[in-house]
Sequence to fold (599 residues):
Amino acid sequence: LTATAADATRLTGKTGDAFSSAWRRRLPLLPALVYVVVITQLPFLVSIYYSFTNLKDKTQSLIPEPTKFVGFDNYKQIFSDPFFRQAMWTSVKMTVLAVVLSLFFGTLFAILLDRKFLGQGLIRTLLITPFLLMPVVAALIWKQQMFSTLFGVLDKVLTFLGFSSVQFISAHPLASIVTVLVWQWTPFMMLIMLAGLQSQPSDILEAADVDGATSFGVFRQLTLPHLRPYLELGALLGSIYIVQAFDAIDVMTGGGPGSTNVPYYVYEESIGGGFRYGAASAYAIVVVIFAIVIATFALRVLSGLFKDEEMA
Amino acid sequence: MSESERRGTTLGVGQRRLIGVGLGALAWIVGLLWIFPFAWTLLTSFKTEQDAAAQTLNHGLSFHRYGDVAHSTAGTLSLQSAFENSLVVVLVSTLIVLLLALPAAYALAIRPVHKWRDVLFFFISTKFLPIVASIFPIYVYAEKWNLIGTRTVLIVLYIAMNLPLAIWMTRSFFLEVPRELIEAAEIDGTNLFNQLRSVILPLAAPGIAATALLCVIFAWNEYFYALQLNFASGSTMPQWVISNVSTRGNFLAKLSAASVIACLPVVLAGWATQKRMIRGLSMGALK
Fold:
């Protein structure tokens, strides 16, 4: 159904040439488009400009130097900075681990919840809850009441079972943060996978049942292919949010080797204490270049999701 | 179904029931395990500080810690002002997100603009832009325009944060609205506003509610922008929770009470609308 401009004019009962008709179509889109461009793209352009200067916060230094162009100095510095490389690596590990594990548990829980059993609604409610909690609170709960060697439940359980105490957060900072991320994002993945399971056409499943197919056969041959776009969607949305993880790191470790990801590193270099906006902007631009590479790949996955859709 | 898959059911009725009970029990174990950290925090919030620190239960349970966190020392961020700030920021930003997203979704789904696919991808791609890449200019200009510490700066940023997701989801709900109804309204000469109001919105309402709820969750829980741009008396609930953290560590019960209060509004809203969210995510995301 591709209405031509002439159709549109006829339908709305107004006169106007093709040009103004096209703009009438665009008009409802413009406020949102302009808003997003102004708030997200303009600051980014300013960031690019900053990245070629030695801009610093003047109130934070005793002898303010005038801001001047430094060319590619900030960018050259990145490649000799081992901490930045470490932060990149931490980012990759943190995101991949958290996304894969929460997708795995989320799918498993969705399969368990898709069957009828006593208390199904209650258990679903309990499982969803961690996703609704503030990331700051989730991190605090795990830090102080689970992982802490003084007040933590895990420590009590370990000593009760005869093991020695583990300094979870200081000895395994990445694993501790990933635990909290997985705890929070598993319910989100579960919701997406539940949506996928419930959208399966029931007549095909019944037909398979009548044919005497085993549950495992049905799952592998029918359910799993049907769930694939939902898995991809979960991975995509999960990565968008988890790669930017900041709250859990700030609350649990406050940075440090093994847990500083790229967003946290750039934060530390700038408003978090370094106040070197010029240099930090250069880091941020490099991150954006990486993000664009990943996003291109992710958007290709996404356009696969749109491929079956009929254009309305 | 291929011939090799046409194996008969080998399990008897009794065995099937046993497996069913077993899977139900497993779901219960998983559910209780997953809620445990929060349930434990809820329990701690009713304990005395001695009991909380020692992980015992010798002095009974009470609501006293909730009274404690409601009273704040003068000059610090109080529960009341943090709650008010959060409420205003979340409601205003979500409302504006919907006002911007609904017409945009109309232009992407019902009467699609030329190259609607590119426009949709552009919106989604802004979510890939790391927040840190734009925070310094925002910080510098917010400082220049005296917006640091205001609700306004958070509202402006939360709209940009939630708008792409909202457009994406509402667009798919709009696709669910039968074309015939919209065309009938068009032939009647109904304008965009009235089409939205009388035909599209009533049918897409459950999906729009799910979208609004996700925006509320993300805005209510947001910490990074609030920390960078709004650290004083104008700040929101996540900062108020953090302000209850004692470095001496002996106010665990009080902190637990603060955590529960801070999360309660969104948790209750999420519980009430969970079925709608599942539907919203399936249709919203993949159509």
Q: What stands out?
A: Chain B has 13 helices and no strands. The two ends of chain B are 28 Å apart (CA to CA).
